[in-house]
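Re-running the complex after MR caught last week's input typo. The corrected sequence lines follow. Everything else is unchanged.
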Amino acid sequence: MSVLLQMTGIVKEFPGVRALDGVDLDVRAGEVHCLLGQNGAGKSTLIKVLSGFHQPDAGTITWEGEPAPLSTPAKAIERGVGTIYQELDLVPHLDVAENIFLGHEVSVGGFTQRGRAHQQARELLDRLGHPEISPTRVVGDLSPAKQQIVSMARALSRDTRLLILDEPSAVLDQGEVENLFRVIHDLTRDGVAVIYISHRLEEIRQIGDRITVLKDGRTVATGLAVQETPTAELIRLMTGRSIEYVFPPRPDTALDRGAAVLEVRDLALAGVFTGVDLTVHAGEIVGFAGLVGAGRSEIIETVYGARRATGGTVTVDGKRLRRGSVAAAVRAGVGLAPEERKSQGLLLDQAVYANITVSSMSRFARLGFLDRGEERRQSQELTSSLDVRPDGVTRAVRTLSGGNQQKVVLARWLMRDCRVLLLDEPTRGVDVGARSEIYQLIRSLADRGVAVVVVSSEIEEVLGLADRVLVVREGVVVHESAATAIDEAEVLDLVMEGKVPA
Amino acid sequence: MSQDSVRVERAALETSREESRFRAVMNSSVGRNSGLVIALLIVCIVGAATAGDRFTSTDNALTILRLAATTGVVSIGMTFVIIGGGIDLSVGAIVALSSVWCTTIATQQLAEDTHWLWMVAVALLVGAGCGLVNGILIAYGNVVAFIATLAMLASARGLAEIISDKKTQILGANGIDVKGFKDFFTADILGVDVQIWLFALVAVAGWVLLNRTTFGRRTVAVGGNPEAARLAGINVRRHTVYLYVLIGVCCGIAALMLVAKTTTGSSTHGTGYELDAIAAVVIGGTLLTGGRGTIVGTVLGVLIFSTLSIIFTLNNRSFSEQSLLKGAIIVAAVLLQQRLASRSST
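Corrected-run output:
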């Protein structure tokens, strides 16, 4: 296979940060090159250099042996670089076909040709295994998984020779990941090179050819053959430590299960889910497993009052909550760590302490005046005990990594001594090292008597972390049992209708 | 952990400490507004150079502050609304309506021997009422702030015209104890007009409210990320209503100041206030998208504009030239801000 792209000694500095500090990378045509590294290792910056958004301060980039400065996004696209970002970059109000051909519309003399655009869009979507997405659908109405398909169709609509996928599986469930892998296989067979970024090692085993590991902005290993490199070695390279994330042991809940704290009866949200019953006891972790879009997030958002239930009741400590009222839920001691941490959870430009105290402000107020010293002191205590790094509660939350941002969200609810904690995808975008810490933290919360509900797309996570598991399919709870009474294959069988467990 | 990484971490800690000290200075009101202070100084130097003693006199300083006071009060309210993610185009019209309504009360025969504080109450209530309508439409009616306040702009001024029959209402001899009202609002304390003190009072109160209270913290949260604020348990809608009521009250105060200054109430009072206030807030560094802004910046913004006006007047330049320059300054300030913002965020 010929070398398509070669990067040598790439350095990129931002004020105060050396984001890339000598990155080497060579990508061959027709291979899947996996990029591994913890959050902050420089993967995102590297992608932005490749797509022409950032100019490196030092180092060389060659494309098929020729020096090729990728000085603007347009130049990178011209070379054939297509990027699927983690945070999708589609125009929500335009339809699917318009998004696919944005910037290179199918047109004659300035007039767009909708018919031809739709037909070509349909061909691309077929090729990606999603003929059910209509080219005329408005993109904002599609699920994140389908939006990602549209994004890929957009990359393929140009003559893409290098496709960069930044954590594509984060918004996908198991079945969709398999479809993604099939598409990637087709592409590499046609000679397209793929750079694949993921935190999930098992995916890399399945799809990757070679691996490059980044750490602290440097390439620490490159060209590792996927099949011959043991997991322990990869984790050692990424972390400098030799640990794998492990789930904390479960206490013997059968013996000392606390009182029922959260009771949900026959909860329904028209068109999304119906008849959900759920009881969570003090000190218990209940996990929701299911496909993306099965209604798991909607269920806990409805419990929290962020969506107004169309039927059923939610009671906390025997007190019934008013429907559709977040304030009532928060008063009753319910906390939510939402799925989209950045857009739903955090005030990114605000200081860490302001993010922690935002839900318990009245505790720090006398006649409306805030005692900021006390806010900072108590927040500092929490961030220290949670080991939030870097230390310091006055820095803006934006400057923290994903795992540390998640700890800030958890700290917010710790500050309130909440009774029920609803966690939606608590480890999304959190690196391997920080994951075990988050798991430990969730377990220790439960041990303090909090009733915890966890939603996760990773079956392994639900089974490893929770005491009890509920499996949701198309808005209905189809299974409930102790987490130890069911295995991954059985859950998979339950959530994917008609499929045999692997 | 290896020694190397310990060393690296320690070094990182030290740089982050230095960084945070630097950041603390830059984040303080003084640091963030240093550009505006310099701009105001430059404007003053230009004033002194072109108008000499007439500019540098104490009297002139008071004139500038007097000019700044009325729009200044409105701009403080506007700062809150804009930080909270909204906009209010109706402030000028609310000022007009408040001025007309309270002078109507004052000139009615049956109001004879009533205390002038009733005028104050009426002006503030009319302002708060208009703000309440704006706020409810925006927060609970899901009307875009731009449209809701645009509608208020039209209807409040229309109502003011109806009430006053398009006539300027002059505070006369009969009716409310007008003398007491005028005496209060046009007096001076320590040689400085009450109106200037009022502006100072509103600004200080605004600063405390924004920086030291739950109300201020919620305003920033609501403007910075309404969804996150809602999920954190803040009643975003109710808070939005409060913000518009707040700016309405500010308009009421401004109306009283205008009525006292001109001894009239008129449906043409406050024309163009919305633009002056938004301009002052924006050049003061408040993000139009919400979530970030300072009272100090707004005060400096108001002072820069009023100082410029005085310089133009002293040099016998036309109002049109003034407007032209004002526009240029707004554009320059926003361009500068964007460059600074992009530098600090990367």
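None of the earlier attempt is carried over here. Residues 38-345 of chain B form a domain with the ABC transporter involved in vitamin B12 uptake, BtuC fold (CATH 1.10.3470). The interface with chain A takes residues 2, 5, 12-13, 15-16, 19-20, 23-24, 208, 212-215, 217-218, 220-221, 224-225, 227-235, 291-292, 343, 346 of chain B (CB under 8 Å).
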